[in-house]
Write a structure and sequence with these properties.
431 residues, twelve-stranded mixed sheet, binds L-homoserine
């Protein structure tokens, strides 16, 4: 049994758990592999932690760890797409250290370059923990489904957002209160805006697209909508109508009539009928559904955030490295990954949920229906709840199928109508 020497940079929620497991020992460590945590780096050396790392070499500067002779593999758990995490990852691979990271923002932006560098220097580079916490989704696509053409991915990819939406419904609590709760439980990102505004799910959708199709859209090119505007009332209306609201990362690929591949990719909240599997994925649980050519439809679920599940993914990468697994990090040569791949607006038509807050006076409904008529959008049903106290009304409209672009145009007209108080909430209905 040869000894694998590990250096961890970043002892947050996940880093601390990885260190703890390495020191304590986990299943395969007992008889198959010998690991030693030889170096750590963190903001604070003295902070009280779940595990005592005082006997382990401490680096104030993680970059020095990347050039240390003692370390075989750097485990980067600092996070962020620029700054020290980026420098550390590039410098590790340049210094002939293998690299394991959970940094989705970095992989979504520089994954191809890092993979090229790893291949050039014949190093192990993996990032299982960057998507869906403890679920081995990258391994599933990269290895289990390797012979399949994948055409579509649908994922609940952000545990915090899913926790917030589920908890708002179950506890009948407001958004802010539930967010604080999620932060206290250690699910949220350092900047929770990433969770709430869909950025975190977008990073993960980009990484999944790279593995599934070899196409990597840029974050700027993705249509992204978060869950900030969703109220408890929205959740209640949807419930009454037979739906759950879920933040989904979607991507699909198909050929147009000229045989050119088109990529569709978005992150936004959807209404999902309660008969769909994804609608029952609650709390911090993530799920990914994959449409593949031979294996058909495959769905995998599990804990998408939290120290232990995410550490499980990091440690599995460490075991793969120890096993001598020859890995193409994205399941193909880095050279074959198309960076900054242009995404297209959805061509498919969907039903929509619209919630509007309006002044409760005559003519408002007529003005609204005129806009719908002008854009040729047919209404399926309307719910109106009046608030007599402040003479306003909440309107919920379900449309028949229309395209996203037409709906967006109609919304621009609706916002300008006299009597429409707040920006309407508009959500696609998954079917
Ligand atoms: N903040 C992330 C989530 C953690 O809530 O899913 C794992 O990426």
């Amino acid at each position: 049994m040869s000894l694998l020497k590990i250096g961890i940079a970043g002892l947050g929620n996940v880093g601390e758990e990885v260190a703890y497991q390495l020191i304590k020992g986990f299943r395969v460590q007992k008889n198959l592999f010998k690991f030693e945590l030889v170096a750590v780096s963190a903001k604070s050396k003295k902070k009280k932690r779940k595990v005592d790392v005082s006997g382990i070499r401490f680096f104030d500067d993680p970059l020095e760890m990347a050039s240390s002779q003692d370390v075989d593999v750097i485990v980067e758990l600092i996070g962020g797409d620029e700054g020290i995490a980026k420098k550390l990852c590039f410098s590790a691979l340049q210094n002939n250290k293998s690299l394991i990271t959970a940094n989705k923002a970095l992989i979504a932006k520089y994954g191809k370059e890092l993979a090229e560098l790893a291949e050039k220097n014949n190093l192990f580079f993996s990032f299982e923990a960057s998507v869906a916490g403890g679920i081995p989704i990258l391994k599933l696509i990269r290895e289990g489904l390797i012979v399949n053409d994948i055409t579509k991915l649908t994922g609940i990819l952000n545990g915090t957002a899913n926790y917030i939406l589920s908890e708002m419904e179950e506890a009948e609590k407001g958004f802010e209160e539930v967010l604080t709760d999620a932060q206290n439980k250690g699910y949220a990102e350092a900047n929770p805006a990433f969770d709430i505004d869909g950025i975190d799910a977008a990073h993960k959708t980009i990484i999944l697209s790279a593995l599934a199709y070899g196409k990597m859209p840029s974050l700027e090119n993705l249509s992204i909508q978060g869950i900030r505007d969703i109220t408890l009332n929205d959740i209640k209306y949807c419930n009454e109508l037979g739906f759950k609201i879920k933040l989904l990362g979607n991507s699909s690929i198909s050929k147009n009539i000229n045989g050119v591949e088109e990529l569709f990719c978005s992150v936004k909240p959807w209404l999902i009928g309660k008969n769909y599997g994804l609608s029952n994925v609650s709390g911090v649980i993530n799920a990914v559904q994959i449409e593949s050519s031979l294996a058909g439809s495959v769905m995998i679920t599990g804990a998408g955030a939290g120290g232990e599940p995410t550490a499980s993914a990091v440690l599995a990468d460490i075991v793969d490295f120890a096993n001598g697994t020859k890995l193409f990090s994205f399941g193909r040569k880095a050279y074959d990954i198309k960076n900054n791949f242009q995404t297209m607006p959805y061509k498919e038509k969907f039903k929509f949920y619209l919630r509007l807050n309006v002044v409760d006076k005559s003519g408002i409904l007529a003005d609204l229906t005129t806009v719908f008529k002008d854009y040729n959008i047919s209404i399926e049903s309307v719910i109106q709840k009046s608030n007599k106290k402040d003479k306003t009304a909440e309107l919920v409209i379900i449309t028949h199928k229309a395209s996203n672009t037409v709906l967006d145009d109609a919304l621009r007209s609706i916002i300008k109508l006299d009597g429409v108080i707040t920006k309407p909430v508009c959500l696609n209905i998954y079917s």
